[in-house]
Prephenate dehydrogenase
Amino acid sequence: MVESRLTGPVRIVGAGLLGTSVALGLRSRGIEVILDDASPTHVAIAADLGAGRPAAPGDAPQLVVVAVPPDVTARVVAAELEAYPDAIVTDVASVKAGILAELVAQGADVSRYIGSHPLAGRERGGPLSARADLFVGRPWVVAAHDAISYQRAGAIDDLILDLGATLVEMTPEEHDRGVALISHVPQVVSSVMARRFIDAPNAALGLAGQGVRDVTRIAASDPDLWVQILGANAEPVHDILVAVRDDLDRFIEALEAPQAPGARRRVAEELAAGNTGVSRLPGKHGTDKRFTTVIVMVDDRAGELARLLAEIGEIGVNLEDLRLEHSPGRQVGLAEVQVVPEAAERLSEELAARGWRIAG
């Protein structure tokens, strides 16, 4: 058992995906966890999973983590601050500025509150989807404000580091603009693209490969939750969507007359700008990297992918990313293994020597 930086107990309000994942991660480090939720069933399931125990009279938590829907987060945080005057309170909602402003307007003791946001999740919610390692290696924003001291906020830092996440400090306003760009607008774009599939011919959908699945994966997210998130962060999302609309208009104009002078150049420039943008996305551990892809053919048999991953580990090459391409009815899938460029040739040679077929 890994020793924790926290002393506990930690009270988790909201035993859904994020709350239960926080609880499981803390329990794996021996921290006492107290569970509370509007749904007794969620509490019972989370407790059965080993995430903690139900709340009881006399509980005196060191830290309270509020993991409830965004439209009730401020109200719940205010209630927790009042109920536990010796506790530090944080929340994990995906918007920050509005919650802080609402708490200040209510007269809540924000000297014991600091908002935070782990950029981790899954398309499915609920305690059964929770994982103790959900936050490992993921950014976790602490939205600092002047009313709380560094010493008091240290408990939140300890929580984040205990769960294996990477601590990122931002103001609430910086956070909300940032997540609008890297999370909220991509959700809208993904959903709008996936909507095109409703009336699409089955023959066209049968051609779907990994590219379209990557673009539309998050379109499977919970609409009710996203209505709340987008409503709470509407202004920056609106501004970015207007800019995206302008980008699309340039594409549309060029494609209306693709033979016109300069049309193909404009299309090429827009596509090249996308190359430049995606190259700026941080790689593993937050470092800007461009990886090399080794494509391995994997037979459609039980255990083959696990064997490939195990042998990559035996070779001693660090796997940076992995994508799978497999169409129904095919006996072979393609594993796109991303590694640092200097390791690609050695990995290809050693996998081939072990009998793997390298594509391309």
Q: What stands out?
A: The domain at 286-359 is CATH 3.30.70.260 (Alpha-Beta Plaits). The chain is about 45% helix and 15% strand. The radius of gyration is 23 Å. The longest helix spans residues 172-195.
